[in-house]
Batch of 2 targets.
Target 1
Amino acid sequence: MKEHNRLQIDRLDIRAGKQDILRSVSLEVSRGEILGIIGPAGSGKTTLLRALNRLLDLDEGLVVSGDIRLNGLSILDKGADEVDVRRKIGLVFSVPTPLPMSIFDNLAFGPRLNGATKIAELRPRMEASLKSAYLWDEVKDRLSEPAANLSGGQQQRLCLARTLMLEPEVLLLDEPCSGLDPISTAQIEEALKVLKNDMAIILVTNNVMQASRVADKTAFLLLGELVESAPTQEIFTTPKDKRTEDYVTGRFG
Amino acid sequence: MIGKLFVALTGLCCLTIVALVAAILGDIAYFGWERLSLQFLMTSPEQGMAEGGIFPAIFGTFFLVLLMTIAVIPLGVMTAIYLHEYAPRNSFLVRWIRLAIENLAGVPAIVFGLFGLGFFIEFVGRGMDRVFLNGQLTFGQPAIIWAALTLALLTLPTVVVATEEALRAIPASHREVAYSLGATRLQMVRWVVLPQAIGGILTGGILAISRGAGEVAPILFTGAAYFLPYLPKKLNDQFMELGYHIYVLATQSPDVEKTKPILYSTVFVLLALTFALNFTAIWVRSRFRRKLRMAK
């Protein structure tokens, strides 16, 4: 296989006016890995994910410098098509955001934009995506129901499945389990452990324990600065920076 | 003590309004009902408006409003979509367009009528005659198409404001989800924004229609006729219209006393028409709200 689904973030700077949101952040993640990003609120974690998915284009007044490369090609380049980037680098938001339509239509939304309209073509992908998101058994008989009928945890797994319908090379998750019950949380974590075999995964989380459970590598962001990034084991047992240690042991606000 | 007095005062004000509405409606219903019949709705005026029905005016009103709707809905909806979905937030251009729309809403109806006469008939119509028809008088005179376009201008703010409101009610997260799944802006508008805004757009459209159906001043110079022995068939025909017909019956009739019952019934029909449209708007709005709430 020629591509490794490799995402490289190279000295990424994001500024809003005079204020730095991210300062020279360099990170890397490939297929087979989950990169956990931890850090207190306001550290720039969400902004980082939005930059990777080019959703930052929608926010006005931000200056981005540095580079982000997918399989060696810059996604910030003038020549890079943001629609194409968003298909390859899927994003799951922190709040479940089903669109006001049926479960089926939610799942079919991405492929349909790309011209895949045949049910026969959509069905197998749907089943695979829903199974990957541990949701198939719960919704297989009610695909035509409004997505709003699902519980919060089910909705979030639907959003994960919806992103998987695009068969992305990189999967970004922005605190996907905030506000979910422990069972849904466990299901999403299980799903990610399997999915990393097919794609690179970045998991932003407020929950330090979640990073320790599922992430292969963990990065600690603090006020826009990448304090430390290392294999998860190291971050949690022998952190190099005092601030990392304080944060992962909970001594830090 | 003062508190109780204030409550009584506010209550009295409400009561006054209710009493006024009841008096107007009651009067019109009581006197208008008498003359009302299927025949009244389906025949032409006769003997200098003192006999017969109002069919040409009803027909003209529907034709006029139909043409107006065809003009105002696309223009208004597209304007709102540009302002809310495409234009950069709070740019000079957007503020300028919004200001223009707000001012348009404040222009008196009679001024629209004069504008229609000056712009549509004298400038556009005459121009068309000169360029395409060797100066033969065809479009350069009052006609239903010019009256409809004048009304469309008058009701444009209603449609733009209602559509923008509907667009504003759609959560930003829905737009971001569409983008994150690889939608272009046009696809996002088509598949996420429009389906959710359609209720608001319809409501605005119906309110514009009900406003347009009741206006007389804009069509006074642009195409409404006192009396016509035929129905309008072409875009450059003149037409009879309910509101204008009421004005004619009330002021231009040779025997005002004799036309009074017909006047009452005509007012009754016009009111019934506008109320029906308003209630339809309310019904459509609540229906779509319920549907959206269920889907959210």
Target 2
Amino acid sequence: MALVLLLWLTVVPQGQILVKGTAPAASDATTPVPEEGRVAGGRYRNAYFGLTYPIPAGWTEQPAGPPPSDSGTYVLANFGIPRAFVVVTAHDLFFKLNPVADAKELLAEMRSGLESRYTIESEPAAVTIGARTFHRLAYASPVAGLRWRVLATDARCHVLVFTFAGADSAALDAAEQAMTGVSLQMTAPVCVAGYAEPQNVVAKEDPLFTTRRFNTIPVRVIVDAKGRVKHAHVLSAFPEQTQAILAALRNWTFKPYRAGGRAVEVETGIVFGMPPGR
Amino acid sequence: MRLRTVPLVALAAFLVVFQVFAQVDPGPRGGPPGAGAPLPSVAANNPVTILTFFNDAKDRFEETNSVFGTIPGEPDGGLGPRFNSRSCVACHSQPATGGTSPATNPQVADATAHGATNTVPPFITINGPVREARFKFFVDGAGNPIPSAPDGGVHALYTIAGRVDASTCTASVIQQPNFANMIAKNNIIFRIPTPVFGSGLIENVDDSTLLAYRATNPGATLGIAGTFNRGGDGTIARFGWKASVKSLEQFSGGAYNIEMGVSNELAPNERPSPNEDRAAGLPAPCRLNATPEDHTNFNTTAVGTPSDAVMFALFMRLLKPPDPDPATPGGSTSIARGGQLFADIGCMHCHKASFKTAPSSITPDLGNKTFTLWSDLQIHRMGTGLADDIQEGAAGGDQFRTAPLWGLGQRLFFLHDGRTSNLYTAITQHASPGSEANQVIQLFLAMPVQNQQDVLNFLRSL
């Protein structure tokens, strides 16, 4: 242990990012957050989304993706073989720069952005996988010899997207078939866009930033049935910004959110710093 | 004899097959430089006298500095006391003035020019890239990095000590950094010069144009989600490896002081090394000139009036973009196909082809022009493989500006530290844990070798 400590003191480790810039953080370590999925026993599990994804047979975990972006994009997992892969991404609908309502709209947006050189193999359409509705788009690049199959579904005011891509069509077929083993079972608060608007906020305290940074800071908060902030997840901020935001949110109170005639927990989004899209 | 011949034939056949079917970086494109000239409207002297200003600015960009400007042929003063090289063009010369690192590294000769007594650090070689060095962290009294104290500043390679014009700034007063120790402690990173062709066009893209492209969020389902670095006024910064510099004047003023040690109206004080800055500052015997050493010239008129820093910026601003070659290397069919593949696999999500400039008050060819730079000017997370642990503004240790690819065909060194001259290696190094480019590189590698070759040919045509 002493030797390890000595090495740490004298040599900067390689292959690590030590000066991170913006990074995610949360108000506690026990409430699940989207970026903390795990691979075990041939499955990818994500507690935040209640997602269990069986990794296609023979596919292996690929290099991890970047941390959450300031526009609410997550790379949750990436598995592959030499000529094909699947990447699982999540898109927070509270913070997406070009707003969409749901998975269906996100895929429609994606389809409209595809240039004519791509061959559309399957227009966006709803499909049922494991009793859950997904929206599916398939396209190809004849010149590149590559194909994409995109499956998107809604979860906690995010769109979860499974993108299968590569040159090995048989492997892509098999991997897409394995989606029948996917399950999404979560007990989560109701999610409501814009619940932090002034009409719902009883008391608030603005975070005191010591440095003007000009970055957008998206924050997901869970408000308990009494209107107090139960949990806050800062997707992308500098450490001193996170500290200031978490300290301020402790003093926020909301009108309790009511559903079915009773007050319940609610999850919503707040943006600090530069407005999205600026 | 026959037994020996058969395996050799087999080996030769294997090599032929390998050469046919393995993708190969065609290498720097030959022929005349596709860059270095002024914008057409500048060449046409529109508005009147702008060409005179451009030519004067180019002369200044190519001049060598000495400490007092008293050495014959080196009339500009202010060099040092610490420096990385002695002129702008020394580092920005491939394939023409305004470019990037040349084939023969001038920093080797800089070390001992005019009697200087510097030791050439091991990361500077005669055939290697021009480099500046930055330390990741400050060090303690024993020379060990302190991970809680990020440095990130440029530690100039050389001092003027020993030069015939060094005066009182001797080796007993000022020393080179201990680079060997920093290498041993993995506390040093490198940067190579960015080419400046077409910079005026980049400067004149309105923020709203850049923001509108970002809002389309292309590549989000592949995990791509860049952001912008910002200047002190909150607007989008766009120059330098991490897009931390807002304007060309800030770029030239900063570089004049950091790379050559010349204080100027944008960086008006003599620059100590970051370590000296933390301690007692620059030693008094090395403060040899009144500051700023470069300034507006009040006793002259017209073209001679602006400072060097202003004229360097003007030179960069008025350079035309590099010209691509539609047929070399590999032929026009391969290049066109490579361009389509480059788009299809998603490289263009970040290496966006073009933007349109805002109206220009300077010269017609800077205004309302659609230009092809191959960059979104955003900063993206590039993973542990490229991370340099340097924070600049909003850019963290793993974030870099999408490098504009125009002129790539005639560049010699790639990536921020010039670690490779091989374009294929540069592409594949975009992938590592934490990189936004991982999926695009997976797609690149999933393609047949001929497709990969077409992409390489396309890029070398730029």
